[in-house]
Every structure is written in structure tokens, then in C-alpha cells.
Recover the amino acids of this structure.
């Protein structure tokens, strides 16, 4: 009888240890969420730049990407984005970021961007659980009482066929972004609507409005950038990357 009791206890202990190992492995496996760093604008507001960086899930390789966008056309500048990855899991993040910065210096000087960073009028990290991830409304600059019209954006997701490599992985999503008319008689405007999904989004499965950056330069029309967090299929879990939609206020 005692031998039977000891055997049952041993089985339970083995089961508990196995469950603990599984839980630990599950908690260690996660997609990578890139860190967002707003670089700023050119002095005339014609260019908006931001950086994302992190450690790639699965490989453990550090990466840093820099995006330089023409705010009038909402298009990347020639030769961008800058994408750097060091295929060495022991390489430092600072090293890969420095390499990306050196390439970016040829496009817009870091000192110019830092001198014209603008205002982070709203920000919602990918870890935030409350609030509406598809809507953001802000006072576009820190002037109180407000002298500017409220700035509001809304995002709508919809199923969109992705690149061929994504088709065996489940449903992929596109999005449209609206600028809401907040004044009497102001029209709601469509700013962006996906017609196809670029391969650079890596099989996207969801989006959220992550932030609004504005810039009021001297003698230039004010501009904005809406930062969109893109959730995609990763190696160990959902990855998060960033994109931006720009325009004039």
C-alpha cells in the first residue's frame, strides 16, 4: 500500500515538474515588439523620420530600421527605409542602431531632426490594454486653452489577401485610416486604404493607432504623422512593427 502511495506521489511530482517546464517555455517564447523612437522632422516639415529597433524573435539578431517620409506625398524618400540587421545574437543593439544612424545621416542630418522633433500629441504603447486602439483624438500642440481644432483619426481593419507566403498562415488584414472632420461642416477624409499588402509587413493580422506626432515649423504649414502599430505573424508569437501616415494640418 505504502509503495503504491509513494508511486502516486512520484507520478504527481513528475507531472508537476513537466507542467512547470512547459509553462516556463511558453512564457519565454514571445514575438518581438520593436521599440519606437521618433527622430523628428526636417526644418521645413517636409520630411518625417522615425526609428524602430529590437531583437528579432527566433534568431536573436539585433535590428534597426529608419523610415524617412515625404510628408506632402506620404511616400518614402529615395533609398529608404534604412534596414540594418547584424546576424550575430551577441551583437549589441547600440551597434546596429549606430550603423543605421550612419546611413541615415546621408539622407537627413540627425542634428536637424533632433532640432525639429515636434510634439507627441498622443501615444499608446502596444502594451496598453484600455482605451480604443482604433481611435485617437488630440489637441495637436500643448497650447492651453487650445487654439487649434481637435485632431482625430480612426482606423478600420478589413480582410486583405497577403503575399503568397502568408496564405497558408491564416487570414491577413489591411486597414484604412480616416481623418475625422471635427468642425461644423468639416468633411471626414480618407487618408489611406490598402489595395495590396506589401511583403515588408510580414503577414499582418492587426493594427492599432499608436501615436500622433505634429510639427509647427516657422513659415511652413503644420504637418502630422500618425504612427500605426502593425501586428504580424512572428516566429515565436505576434511581432509588432511600426509605420506612419503623414499629411498637412
Amino acid at each position: 500500500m505504502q509503495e503504491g502511495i509513494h508511486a502516486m506521489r512520484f507520478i504527481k511530482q513528475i507531472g508537476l515538474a513537466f507542467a512547470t517546464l512547459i509553462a516556463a517555455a511558453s512564457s519565454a517564447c514571445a514575438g518581438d515588439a520593436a521599440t519606437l523612437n521618433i527622430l523628428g522632422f526636417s526644418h521645413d516639415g517636409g520630411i518625417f523620420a522615425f526609428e524602430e529597433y529590437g531583437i528579432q524573435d527566433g534568431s536573436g539578431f539585433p535590428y534597426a530600421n529608419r523610415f524617412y517620409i515625404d510628408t506632402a506625398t506620404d511616400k518614402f524618400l529615395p533609398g529608404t527605409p534604412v534596414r540594418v540587421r547584424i546576424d550575430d545574437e551577441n551583437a549589441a543593439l547600440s551597434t546596429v542602431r549606430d550603423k543605421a544612424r550612419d546611413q541615415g545621416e546621408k539622407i537627413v542630418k540627425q542634428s536637424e531632426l533632433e532640432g525639429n522633433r515636434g510634439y507627441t500629441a498622443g501615444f499608446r504603447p502596444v502594451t496598453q490594454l484600455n482605451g480604443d486602439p482604433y481611435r485617437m483624438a488630440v489637441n495637436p500642440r500643448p497650447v492651453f486653452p487650445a487654439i487649434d481644432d481637435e485632431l482625430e483619426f480612426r482606423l478600420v481593419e478589413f480582410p486583405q489577401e497577403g503575399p503568397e507566403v502568408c496564405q497558408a498562415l491564416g487570414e491577413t488584414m489591411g486597414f484604412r485610416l480616416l481623418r475625422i472632420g471635427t468642425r461644423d461642416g468639416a468633411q471626414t477624409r480618407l487618408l489611406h486604404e490598402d489595395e495590396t499588402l506589401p511583403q515588408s509587413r510580414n503577414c499582418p493580422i492587426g493594427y492599432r493607432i499608436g501615436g500622433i506626432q505634429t510639427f509647427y515649423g516657422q513659415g511652413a504649414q503644420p504637418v502630422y504623422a500618425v504612427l500605426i502599430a502593425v501586428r504580424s505573424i512572428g516566429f515565436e508569437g505576434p511581432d509588432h512593427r511600426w509605420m506612419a501616415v503623414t499629411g498637412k494640418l
Summary: Residues 2-28 form the longest helix (27 residues). The chain has a mean pLDDT of 89.
